[in-house]
Design brief:
Order of helices and strands of chain A: EEEHEEHEHHHHEHEHEEHH
Distance between the termini of chain B: 38 Å
Helix content of chain A: 25-40%
Structural class of chain B: alpha/beta
Radius of gyration of chain A: 18 Å
Largest sheet of chain A: 6 strands, mixed
Largest sheet of chain B: 7 strands, mixed
Helix content of chain B: 25-40%
Largest interface: A-B, 25 and 19 residues
CATH architecture of the largest domain in chain A: 3-Layer(aba) Sandwich
Number of helices of chain B: 7
Structural class of chain A: alpha/beta
Oligomer: heterodimer
Number of domains of chain A: 2
Chain lengths: ~260, ~280
Amino acid sequence: MTKPLLVAENISKYYDGRVACEKVNFELWPGEVLAIVGESGSGKTTLLKCLSMQIAPNAGRVLYSLRDGRTESLSDLSEAERRFLMRTDWGFVHQDPREGLRMGVSAGANVGERLMAVGERHYGRIRSTALDWLNRVEIAGDRIDESPRNYSGGMRQRLQIARNLVTAPRLVFMDEPTGGLDVSVQARLLDLLRGLVRTLGLSVVIVTHDLAVARLLSTRILVMQQGKVIETGLTDQVLEDPQAPYTQLLVSSVLQV
Amino acid sequence: MTTGYNFAYLNEQTKRMIRRALLKAVAIPGYQVPFASREMPMPYGWGTGGVQVTASILTPGDTLKVIDQGADDTTNAVSIRKFFVRTAGVATTEETEKASIIQTRHRVPEASLREDQILVYQVPIPEPLRFLEPRETETRKMHALEEYGIMHVKLYEDIARHGHIATAYAYPAKVNGRYVFDPSPIPKFDNPKLDDCAALQLFGAGREKRIYAVPPYTKVTSLDFEDHPFSVQKWEEPCALCGSTTTYLDEIILDDKGKRMFVCSDTDHCRKAQEKAA
């Protein structure tokens, strides 16, 4: 009997008494991709930060199933354990790749950093793993020694993904990963992400305001409005037959070409 | 000796505060202890950290040696030596063997040090992680949690760009298997001398307000990769003055036609070797 990888219980976060997200509950199962959608200011990003322990929620807890089989509340873990989790078992893909990358060092070092952080001390092996990963995210191997500053937005985003996946994490958080990219680049990135998620069996929590992204990548969807989850269900079901009025509005607002 | 000053310039309370920091630094090898660094009558970058450490451990019976880039007669060394002659009236020497306290900038003396000697380093930037992580709050956390992977990112960058570890000075090392520290801008040639050294080694950073230490006979391991092990600089020719092949050499340009010579950077060691040969 498998158990859920991540369980959110009554997550609430207030800023100065103002609701950012309130009483959010869900379970994320291994291999599942959960999309959190909603308009700007609906609390999506706050929820993601609470889940990944970048900010502490005011109420509620996040349970996580560790690799050794224990299920722990993330707030009970020591800071050292949390940071270790962040570096190994988790990935975090930022909307702006400059936040997730070290812009001052080469692409190879960016991919290799997590390996070195978990104790890899063999240059040749680090380099071949980095090359392998650049290859997998469709970045030419001869650009391994270039700084990400020389990369285009799409390449930076792919590099950020490679950097996160190199330690074979089980759970990846993504905050609008296709945000700043033009549509053709977006399409390629989504294609790549879908492939990686399927082949690696990743569990993903992805925050997006783009319903197309949710449709392509996710298995389940969580619709948020003013900090509350107003609708949840299988992606196709929610998008084909939205129940809540707000979701209906959201779905009907998608531009048709 | 100038009157009107307390012995060795600093007042007794300040010295006591610095000695407390020193004791803590010795107790936790390689850990950067914050201290209330004072304004000194010389600019930051001239060794204000080292001077404060020296002033705090100096006693009237001490013999002081000050070197800058290995030499006793360079500006920085001369002015600091003069400072302590005026404010403390201590004996000074240029001979490594006769000194009880040696304040240094950018070099470790070639002669091996003894248990009754103290080496005081002047440190500009005590934080080895600064290159990749500018936030002090974050680097402290990284030290506390022993997250040193980022240090190897720097070395990785070196190999990727230059084919070998090109960091030649301020080469990061791990003290006593725990804290990674910056041994100040000494050439990496000197890093092996820090390991298992008989003398007490104290590091003072005045502007950054940090003190750290390597107690006698402490393990100091320079960071490296399995397939790119740590190595020190080598020269193709011996010292042009004393003929030594085992010392750190400075390159001196002689004219504008490409003539140059390599000589020992440790002037005291070089002079003694020449006297011995003569």
